[in-house]
Design goal:
The chain has 566 residues and is α+β, with helices and mostly antiparallel strands. The chain has 11 helices and 19 strands. Strands 8, 9, 10, 11, 12, 13, 16, 17, 18 and 19 form a 10-stranded mixed sheet that branches. The radius of gyration is 33 Å and the shape is flat. 36% of the residues are buried.
């Protein structure tokens, strides 16, 4: 490998005996990793491994990226970049610099950040003030004491009333009855006085607390305002280019879509790489982002595996930056392997007057979506000449058994069976036990291989949407919904394990996350572009292979099976 005058363009041979280059720029949100990108990533991993300083800087977990480029002379090479900071630094040799460097200690960002941090220190001091703590304890004691005083007086009033009622029933004289009335009136008036005194005492004690809490709230509002203004300053001053030579700030790109840029927008590897290429006369050819370091606790991230760009931060940004590039379509190649998945005729497994059960191809939508491609329910409805009703769904990339209803009664009955867990489902999947997730010798980072050692078991990992990177899901023990999957290893081979999944719940991407997450099986499903196995198969190797349910009209059990094409 040789380098030109630009030390950040790393060259490799793509000549007659070299690697082929993609004809069109790949979609960073959904792609199969090109060979040139895989080789570039291996080179970057090797470079990091040769330096203890870099291994330490990246080992806590960092998304890296490589961009294959072509210069004005037609020579090819690649750029390397990383997201955010590495070891507290935004600029490192070998890697492209940030679009906007925020690490200058004398720059506006660092100075304003210091002011915001100073406000944070004041908040901590105010919250830890002994006088504030004492005021809180006193307010609680006053409130408790007043509640007790009122309660005791009410108990006395209840006893007095019982005594007065007894005297009235015994036939007391007029004078006695008049005194009982006055006693009752006095006790009620005294309760009002006690309540008023307690209310004033509680308010006085609370007002002392508010002197501290109001100051804390004011400081927090000030910190929030300054943080938002600083984030806006970053996005207004972070200006990027696209392949047409147009320039826009991150703020402008998002505001044109009615959005506010999330924190950290523009600091990911992909926009850094594209920006450097455009500003240095380099033509982007292909891109890929991969994880280095420890797994994240909630997201599915494994060392050395490729993942798509995040949609929350990079979606609008990269859409602008890629304008002018000769791009692949949303689906660079048909996931199912057919020339046009929407034109495929799905096999019908079962049909009667109430339901139809089909074998959905991989790459076909179950129901209408945003892509404009025909969904399976539309294809079947056209074929039958009547509208079908959805009961459940399969991910677009998942193949296998899916049920549709022919009337509302059947739909309602089947949906209830799914909701109550009566339906029994099985899926067959091929898991990637090799891929490019093997830890390098220097980092020594572990990669779980549970599927290669445990023959059966149950996975219970709660799932929640990753709102900044839809449609990805993440493990979230605090806010996630219960997700439980039974599994059984039914075959093994070089670099793969065949698994039978029995989902107990039906969360979005449940099997994909439970397979890939380090607390699950630690091995993504082959061909899974979202969770770390892009390019290992021509499709997602997940198939709904068996289903058992009650017929919505007859109530008789129905069990159907389908074999996966993989």
């Amino acid at each position: 490998m040789t380098r030109t005058d630009d030390p950040l363009v790393h060259r490799f041979d793509t000549g007659e005996n070299g690697m082929p280059l993609p004809e069109r720029f790949n979609n960073p949100f959904r792609y199969a990793t090109a060979q040139v990108i895989s080789e570039a990533a291996k080179t970057v991993l090797g470079y990091i491994s040769s330096s203890e300083r870099l291994v330490h800087a990246f080992s806590e977990g960092k998304m890296l990226g490589v961009l294959a480029v072509r210069d004005s002379e037609g020579k090819t090479g690649f750029l390397a970049g990383f997201s955010g900071l590495a070891g507290g630094r935004s600029v490192l040799p070998y890697f492209v610099p940030p679009v906007l460097d925020l690490t200058d200690p004398t720059g506006y960002f660092r100075q304003e950040e210091a002011r915001i941090n100073g406000i944070g220190s004041l908040i901590k001091e105010a919250e830890a003030n002994p006088e504030f703590g004492s005021a809180i304890r006193n307010a609680e004691a006053v409130k408790t004491g007043c509640e007790k005083k009122i309660r005791q007086w009410k108990e006395r009033m209840a006893e007095s009333k019982a005594r007065r009622d007894a005297l009235r029933l015994s036939g007391a004289d007029k004078t006695t009855l008049e005194s009982l009335i006055k006693e009752s009136q006095f006790e009620k008036a005294q309760l009002k006085r006690i309540s008023a005194e307690c209310k004033a005492a509680v308010e006085d004690a609370a007002s002392v607390c508010r002197k501290f809490s109001d100051r804390i709230a004011t400081l927090k509002r000030l910190r929030q305002e300054k943080s938002e203004k600083l984030q806006e300053w970053i996005s207004r001053n972070m200006v990027v280019e696209n392949a047409l030579g147009e320039k826009k700030s991150v703020w402008q790109i998002f505001s044109e879509q009615g959005l506010v840029p999330p924190g950290g927008t523009g600091e990911c590897a992909a926009p850094k790489l594209l920006h450097y290429a455009y500003t240095h006369g380099l033509e982007p050819v292909a891109i890929g982002e991969f994880w280095y370091g420890k797994d994240l606790g909630n997201e599915v991230r494994q060392h050395g595996r490729f993942y798509p760009s995040c949609k929350g931060k990079c979606g609008p940004l990269l859409k602008f930056m890629m304008q002018g590039l000769d791009m692949e379509t949303e689906h660079p190649e048909p996931v199912s392997g057919t020339a046009d998945c929407s034109a495929a005729i799905p096999a019908v497994i079962y049909e009667d007057s109430d339901i139809i059960v089909a074998d959905k191809p991989s790459g076909m939508l179950s129901t209408p979506g945003k892509t404009g491609e025909k969904s399976l329910i539309e294809i079947l409805s056209e074929k039958l000449g009547t509208g079908l009703l959805g009961v459940h769904r399969l991910d677009m990339d998942t193949s296998g058994i899916i049920i549709y209803a022919k009337n509302p009664c059947a739909q309602k009955n089947l949906q209830r069976q799914f909701e109550t867990g009566e339906v029994r489902k099985e899926y067959i999947a091929l898991l990637d036990t090799a891929g490019n997730g093997t830890p390098d010798a220097v980092s020594g980072l572990p990669v779980s291989r549970k599927a290669a050692t445990d023959l059966s078991g149950t996975i219970s990992l709660p799932l929640a949407p990753d709102y900044l990177d839809r449609p990805r899901q993440k493990v979230d023990s605090g806010h996630g919904k219960k997700a439980v999957t039974g599994y059984e290893v039914i075959g093994t081979g070089e670099g793969w394990v065949k698994v039978l999944f029995r989902p107990i719940t039906g969360r979005t991407h449940q099997l994909r996350v439970h397979a890939a997450h380090r607390l699950g099986l630690g091995c993504p499903i082959k061909g899974d572009r979202l969770y770390g196995s892009a390019g290992t198969a021509g499709r997602l190797c997940l198939h709904a292979s068996r289903i058992k349910f009650r017929h919505p009209v007859t109530g008789l059990p129905v069990e159907l099976a389908s074999d996966p094409e993989f």
